[in-house]
Amino acid sequence: MKRSRTATAVTSLLVAGLVGLTGCQKPLVGAAPAQTSPPAAGQDAVSGSAGAALNRLPVRAAGTMSGYNRLAFGAAWTDDVDDVDGHNGCDTRDDILALYLTRITYRSGHCIVASGTLHDPYTGRTIDFVRGPKSTVIQIDHVVALGNAWTSGASRLTATQRKDLAEDPLELLPVDGPTNEAKGDGDASQWLPPQAGYHCSYVARQIAVKTKYHLSVTAPERSAMQHVLTTCPKQGLPVEPR
């Protein structure tokens, strides 16, 4: 893979994505400094604890799914995005697999992940990945489901902003495929990972994505997030590595 994926970036994302496997009391790595004015959607806007960031999110009823489809967020796994691995010649799915899997082998070059091992944050299982007919044993989850993003404000974003959201490493995790399918478009009031030890990290990551892209939460969703965060009041927010 193109060496713009620095060791620092890989380490930061691994810590941010997997810290919940050992308990949710430890804050995720790297809270960004406070900003004095709201940035445009898609720029980092996270600081302090996850609970404080949650309190700053607007609370609104879920919008309509009218007009939603996957292509509203651009072509899946495009490399044409402005993030840490954008324009590196590799598609986003392989970028994310390379960030999280261990014991990786590549097919015909430096991009296509042929095999590897995932320590799944959602179930706690160790899953072997081999590209081929059973590749879907591992799927790339949009932590804030795209349907949920659409009804919480993404419908009002520009096409470019929606594309960046859907391909943002902050928004993406490789996880157990059947578990991802069970999640569907559920928010935190409707679905949480089976592994309770990852709930704090999962909710914090959703809050970070919704903060970054100026999305809202529903009242039940906010209550569910607050309930999770009562078990980890010092939970921090993950930040995409630079």
What is the 3D form? Answer: globular
Enumerate the strands of the largest sheet in spatial order, edge to edge or round the barrel: 1-2-3
Q: Roughly how many Å apart are the termini?
A: 17 Å
Give the domain tally.
1
Total DSSP E strands: 5
Strand content: 5-15%
What is the gyration radius calculated from CA atoms?
Answer: 17 Å
Task: Give the biggest beta sheet.
Answer: 3 strands, antiparallel
Give the mean pLDDT: 84
Question: Class by helix and strand content?
Answer: alpha+beta
Defining key terms:
single chain, two-stranded antiparallel ribbon, 12% strand, 3-stranded antiparallel sheet, globular, 5 strands
Describe the structure.
This protein is of the alpha+beta class and 242 residues long. 31% of the residues lie in helices and 12% in strands. It has eight helices and five strands. Strands 1-2-3 form a three-stranded antiparallel β-sheet, with helices on one face. A two-stranded antiparallel ribbon has the order 4-5. Mean pLDDT is 84; it is low at 1-47.
